[in-house]
Specification:
Layout: H1 7-31, E1 36-45, E2 59-61, E3 64-66, E4 70-78, E5 93-97, E6 102-112, E7 120-123, E8 126-129, E9 139-147, E10 153-156, E11 167-168, H2 174-198, E12 201-202, E13 205-206, H3 210-234, H4 240-261
Parallel strand pairs: 1-11
Antiparallel strand pairs: 1-4, 2-3, 4-9, 5-8, 5-10, 6-9, 7-8, 12-13
Helix pairs in contact: 2-3, 3-4
């Protein structure tokens, strides 16, 4: 028995499933809206290799020679969508240098925004960033000078709603991997819509089923929305309403262009000399 699916039924079923999944996804997104990331920006030796080095050359800080000094730069960022209050901290965010490395000096080199006033306290091999308000996008750059050995750092913190604070030294974060998967899915759908459109014209006559046209329209819209979102991310736009406003500004000329491109050619008037 051959089963023929009604495209209206399929769209209704998809809408019903989306109506269940979207609230769940939004709830999960709200749970993950608090996030603090610590990126390892760079780690550089401050002393050249002893082989071939000038005898007697050493690095001195405040009158104390340093053995195998290294400069490590971190950037701490609130990369979530919700602010983190000072009261959300159970304790400070700690950067710990593992033995045999020794912390010599840790300081804040830059902040974003400029009104941010972080406080660092260093005791032994642990530097502690005291609790403070971190709004989405706030960033603190920290430079640490160590000696004795190439340092290895770990981060420790307990913040309400933040599952973990770890040092990320990789080029790709979890968000970039998620964006890559979303891009792959949208690319597949976009190519499918492209092949549908390419298959519609035969012998000068355009043939396309309504469900195929609906699918192509939805995919094109999704790709357009994704491109606007990527533009907003590249410009570091945090406000959802600003992204929506940009999308609306893009939609208006796009709708006009689409209407012009798809406008049917005028037919000759009945009884005219060119009429068949």
């Amino acid at each position: 028995m051959k089963l023929v699916a009604d495209w209206r039924f399929v769209l209704t079923a998809v809408a019903g499933v989306a109506g269940v999944l979207i609230p769940v996804w939004l709830w999960r997104a709200d749970l993950n809206s608090r996030s603090v990331r610590v990126d390892l920006i760079s780690q550089t030796s401050l002393q050249p290799d002893t082989k071939g080095a000038t005898p007697g050359l050493s690095v001195v800080l405040d009158g104390t020679p340093l053995l195998a000094p290294h400069l490590t730069v971190f950037r701490l960022t609130n990369d979530g969508s919700r602010p983190i209050q000072a009261s959300d901290f159970e304790g400070p965010i700690e950067l710990l240098a593992k033995e045999p490395a020794k912390l010599v000096r840790v300081s804040v080199t830059s902040v974003l925004p400029t009104g941010l006033t972080p406080r660092l306290l260093t005791t032994g091999n642990t530097s502690s960033l005291q609790p403070l308000l971190l709004n989405p996008g706030d960033a603190i750059t920290i430079a640490a000078i160590s000696s004795e050995a190439p340092p290895q750092f770990v981060a420790r913190a307990r913040i309400a709603g933040v599952p973990d604070v770890a040092i990320d030294s990789s080029a790709k974060s979890e968000k970039s991997r998620q964006v890559g998967l979303i891009g792959l899915a949208l690319g597949f759908l976009s190519l499918t819509a492209s092949f549908i459109t390419a298959d519609t014209s035969r012998d000068g006559v355009v043939r396309i089923r309504q469900r195929a046209a609906t699918f192509s329209s939805l995919v094109a819209g999704l790709v357009g929305v994704a491109c606007v979102a990527v533009f907003g991310i590249s410009r570091e736009i945090e406000s959802v309403w600003q992204v929506i406003g940009i999308g609306a500004l893009v939609c208006v000329p796009a709708a006009i262009m689409g209407h012009i491109l798809n406008k049917p050619r005028s037919q000759p008037a009945a009884g005219s000399a060119n009429a068949p």
